[in-house]
What does this fold into?
Amino acid sequence: MINTISWQAYWQVIVVALVIYYVVVVFRFFVRNSILSSGSATAITGSPISTSDGLLRDSGVHSEFHQPEMGSEEQLVYSCIDELNAFLQQSKRTKCDKPSFLFSIKRILTKYPSLKTSQYKEAVSSVLASEAEHLCSIHIDREDVDSVWLGV
It folds into this structure.
């Protein structure tokens, strides 16, 4: 059987397989990331995220996004998450240690004392823990999150 396959046919199959492989790799890592960064993806938790055009994107279903009212609890959550995301992006670049990281998170959360008793506390804590591990490679367990909220 091997004698019936020519070297030319062998190399043609190898080249076609490599082309298919690299097309898949390029799509998966480069094209997909640019699509995700344009706002057509959902957050890690699976909830829809807003885009610059004010629409929510979730599996191709478009619905209008309404910004929460100023001073509402939802607006505080959005502000807190935005500030935490900015800090996490900065920490990703500076590679800070865990104690200073937790201290900085505590300082950010002291700006939002009403979230400590809010129904959104668990959601903010969950986002904080998952994004800290994802972006900064800092594992935050339940005790760390509770200690951060104690100072608020």
Observations:
- Residues 132 and 138 are 6 Å apart (CA to CA).
- The radius of gyration is 23 Å.
- The beta strands are 49-50, 55-58, 61-64.
- The first strand starts at residue 49 and ends at 50.
